């Protein structure tokens, strides 16, 4: 892709162009890789889908359940969060419904066997543990993903959100948090032992002049080492790997976030690095301009802007673009670097609502105009259509068609 695909073509047109992976999609891939990293995680999400499929396959079973369950989705990662939340919320109702169906002699044998199989999988400590654990993890990931899909997000906010998730995962990887989730799972399932818990015999080497050997038995849980820690390690590894890409894109702009904390010499050095990268866009006076802008922010005090968007807003609100023209250019370069393409993809998806089977003969120009009106609906909704209709009637446009 990079050597002969779209990226290579763009690099030929502009060598300074940089590829920015969509931050929201990258976060989804982090979760996908974590789910596939161990057997227990794969089995858990398969069980979630089986529960949904079993109850939605029959209106009678759905009536017996008398609750809501959610299924998984290949394209929407947030569906996994919805599925976990519904399982945790309706845990006892799902168990009771499966027991009723399993013990109902009027049900088909196949249906009763399916209910019994799902019930056996739910009635173990591993499933209860993962339902609570994934429920909390996915809830945080889902809310972060929604924030990453915002139209006005920039790379600085993306790095902050990724770092917050990395710290969150690191904090969870401890024995105390493991015991917390385990205790919650025991209270939920009323089961006190993992099925994967085994006993290992430690036999000390016996010498010829000793008596009978003594064996010591130590209990340990494979679940903690091979599932809990593996999932968290995979999440952390993937988050750090993808966050590194965004930090590399942001590293030359980092001094803007610390202008008031850095000395003028450091500001000048960092500004020169950025100016050398974009020599055609930024003048050699850019470094001196940044030092002056630092002094300007220090004079403002506590009301000084902290984010890139706020800095651009101050330049426009106070009519300072003439004083700091190249700072305005550099800030707009950073803000125009796309951090997410979710809103763009939603714009393309609106075509299926515009071009229906009743509009199959619509021209390309008219389709494009209608799509733009649909995409920027928040703007078009404020237009006074009465004036447009009157102008259209005055021009007698119907006779021209």
From TrEMBL:
Coiled coil: none annotated. GO terms for molecular function: protein dimerization activity. Residues 324-375 form the HAT C-terminal dimerisation domain. It comes from the Eukaryota. Transmembrane segments: none annotated. This is HAT C-terminal dimerisation domain-containing protein.
């Amino acid at each position: 892709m990079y050597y002969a695909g779209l990226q290579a073509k763009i690099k030929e047109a502009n060598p300074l162009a940089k590829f920015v992976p969509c931050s929201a999609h990258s976060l989804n891939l982090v979760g996908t890789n974590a789910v596939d990293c161990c057997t227990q995680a794969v089995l858990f999400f398969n069980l979630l889908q089986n529960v949904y499929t079993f109850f939605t396959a029959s209106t009678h079973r759905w009536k017996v359940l008398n609750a809501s369950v959610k299924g998984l989705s290949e394209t929407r990662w947030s569906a996994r969060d919805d599925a976990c939340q519904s399982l945790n919320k309706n845990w006892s109702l799902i168990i009771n419904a499966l027991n009723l169906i399993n013990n109902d002699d009027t049900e088909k044998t196949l249906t009763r066997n399916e209910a019994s199989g799902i019930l056996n999988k739910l009635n173990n400590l591993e499933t209860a543990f993962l339902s609570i654990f994934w429920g909390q993890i996915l809830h945080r990931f889902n809310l972060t993903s929604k924030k990453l899909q915002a139209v006005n997000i920039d790379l600085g906010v993306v790095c902050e959100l990724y770092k917050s998730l990395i710290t969150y995962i690191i904090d969870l990887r401890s024995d105390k948090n493991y015991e917390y989730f385990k205790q919650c799972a025991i209270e939920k399932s009323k089961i006190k032992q993992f099925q994967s818990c085994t006993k290992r015999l430690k036999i000390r080497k016996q010498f010829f002049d000793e008596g009978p050997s003594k064996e010591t038995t130590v209990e340990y849980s494979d679940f903690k080492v091979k599932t809990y820690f593996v999932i968290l390690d995979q999440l952390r590894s993937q988050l750090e790997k993808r966050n590194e890409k965004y930090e590399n894109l942001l590293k030359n702009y980092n001094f803007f976030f610390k202008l008031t904390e850095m000395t003028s010499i450091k500001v000048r050095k960092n500004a020169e690095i950025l100016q050398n990268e974009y020599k055609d866009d930024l003048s050699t006076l850019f470094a001196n301009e940044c030092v002056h802008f630092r002094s300007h922010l220090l004079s403002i005090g506590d009301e000084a802007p902290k984010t890139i968007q706020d800095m651009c807003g101050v330049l426009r609100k106070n009519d300072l673009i003439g004083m700091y023209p190249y700072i305005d250019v550099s800030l707009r370069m950073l803000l125009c670097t796309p951090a997410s393409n979710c809103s763009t993809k939603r714009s393309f998806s609106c075509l299926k609502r515009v071009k229906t089977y009743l509009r199959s003969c619509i021209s390309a120009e008219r389709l494009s105009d209608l799509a733009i009106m649909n995409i920027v609906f928040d703007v078009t909704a404020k237009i006074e259509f009465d004036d447009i209709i009157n102008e259209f009637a005055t021009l007698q446009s119907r006779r021209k068609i």
